[in-house]
Amino acid sequence: MFTAPYHYTRAFAEQLDGQDELARFRDEFYVNPDSIYMDGNSLGLLSKRAEQSLLRVVDAWKTRGIDGWTQGEHPWFYMAEQLAALSAPLVGAAADEVIVTGSTTTNLHQLVATFYKPEGVRTQIVADALNFPSDIYALQSQLRLHGLDPAEHLIQVQSRDGRMIEEDDIIAAMTDEVALVILPTVLYRSGQLLDMERLTAEAHARGILIGFDGCHSVGAVQHHFSQWGVDFAYWCNYKYLNSGPGGVGGLYVNRKHFGRLPGLAGWFGSSKDKQFDMEHRFVPAADAGAYQIGTPHIISMAPLIGSLEMFAEADLTRLRRKSLQMTAYMMGLIEQELSGMGFTIGNPRDDQRRGGHVSLEHAEAARICKALKESGVVPDFRAPNIIRLAPIALYSTYGDVWDTVQRLKTIMTDKLYEKFENTRDVVA
Ligand SMILES: *Cc1c(COP(=O)(O)O)cnc(C)c1O
Fold first, then answer.
1. Domain tally, the chain
2. Is 103 in the pocket of ligand 1 (CB under 6 A)?
3. Tell me, what's the pLDDT at 6?
4. CB–CB of 39/379 below 8 Å?
5. Same domain, yes or no, for 330 and 367?
């Protein structure tokens, strides 16, 4: 542990790495020695344990064929539930309130199809104006399925400064016409962490259900969904949880809602002992398993087995502490080393309100990102002007943070960004 003021030398960064209680986990990842990875909030790196669990599952297919469903080290028929039990501590839920299934977007569809019941004047869904587009598209289409016009029934709480959403503004939007509130836990651009406990209490005081998108917080920030009484949540596992591109997502349903018929039913939502009765009367699982739809994507789930084992060992409290220290250190370095170069730190400074990444704004952000990539740093760019930098507690070092800021400094001082166009690539 260290406290500000930091020393602005590489030796100090190395000293912090020397004291890092999580340092041993870096060796468990495939970290490219020639590159500094600051994009683990978009796609986490592969760990050796995730690779091993994937290979074990492929081997079960190779050696057992169909019997892999019920036999071997990780019988596929129970894998979603087993992974849910490993995920539950990360979101503050009981094992049976979680299921690993679907993707962020399909899980949102499932949950809105299940929980959005417009009735009388209560027809609106409240979201925010800064959320990830896929969530908004899903909400618009769910409203249309009810024959409702999204322009009227989807209320997007506006940002006052283009970065943050004020909780007071969200609460003010919770009127008698609102049926459901859907919000991100952490905003994907600015990294603002919303006060989920407060928002849940305010929604419930008005008879409104509330669900959260945990894509940018699960694996980085502690949650207490059950204790807070959150109705439901959904997230992806390929960002901070390192489960690989397109890795299967997760969802949470508070046990007070167990027994609600899934809006989108399928045979894998069946009670496990009934599923193979093959009857046309659907008998849903008694828990969050009911919200599964079809056959689980076993191969895309397998890396999560090894990955979640590491989260259990590393302990989320320690991961969060290091993540906050790394982003604080990065912000300190940015202020010290890059002042007067046109950068603005767009994320909250307060530890209570900051997720896992630094949101650095600059008018030339698109081409500064390209120059960073050329210099061996992997950031990501979010239109129109944001460079997201995410030092990851499991595998990034304070030395990485130091080097990233130094390379940014060189790029600005030598105007290395000028040889690139200030436009985004197809995948930014
Ligand atoms: C990453 C992310 C998604 C991606 O959804 P997929 O269904 O996995 O493609 C959706 N919403 C948010 C807020 C995200 O951060």
1. 2
2. yes
3. 64
4. yes
5. yes
Q: Is 169 a catalytic residue?
A: no
Residue 139 and residue 287 in one domain: yes
Both 25 and 55 in a single domain? no
Q: What pLDDT, on a 0 to 100 scale, did the predictor assign at position 4?
A: 55
239 and 269 inside one domain: yes
In terms of DSSP bridges, do strands 36-37 and 358-361 run parallel, antiparallel, or are they unpaired? unpaired
Longest dimension (CA), the chain: 70
pLDDT in tens, 306-322: 999 999 999 999 999 99
Q: Which of 313, 340, 371 is at the close of a domain?
A: 313
| Same-domain pairing of 389 and 345 | yes
| CA distances, 178 to each of 41, 118, 131, 233 (Å) | 32, 9, 18, 18
Residue of 215, 235, 359 best suited for mutating to test ligand 1, as the one with most atoms within 8 Å of CB: 215
Residues lower than pLDDT 70 in the chain: 1-6
Beta-carbon contacts of residue 363 (< 8 Å; ≥ 6 apart): 342, 385
Segment 369-401, tens digit of pLDDT: 999 999 999 999 999 999 999 999 999 999 999
Whether 427 is covered by a domain: the verdict is no
| Structural domain span for residue 340 | 5-30+316-419
Q: Which atom of ligand 1 is nearest to the CA of 216?
A: 15
- Please state the atom number of ligand 1 nearest to the C-alpha of residue 106: 7
**pTM check: above 0.70:** yes
Say what the pLDDT of residue 55 is: 98
Q: For residue 213, indicate whether it is catalytic.
A: yes
- Give, using CA atoms, the residue closest to atom 5 of ligand 1: 104
Determine which residue's CA is closest to atom 4 belonging to ligand 1. Answer: 104
Three-state DSSP at 284 gives: strand
Q: Structure tokens of 54? A: 């994937």
CB 96 less than 6 A from any atom of ligand 1: no
213 CB near ligand 1 (under 6 Å): yes
Say what the pLDDT of residue 1 is.
Answer: 41
Which two tokens mark 393? 């507690």
Q: What is 291-327 written as a DSSP string?
A: G--SS--HHHHHHHHHHHHHHHHH-HHHHHHHHHHHH
Closest ligand 1 atom to Cα of 239: 1
Residue 132 designated active-site: yes
Q: Which atom number of ligand 1 is nearest to the Cα of residue 108?
A: 7
CATH code at position 61: 3.40.640.10
Ligand 1 near 137 CB (within 6 A): no
Q: Give yes or no: 415 in active site.
A: no
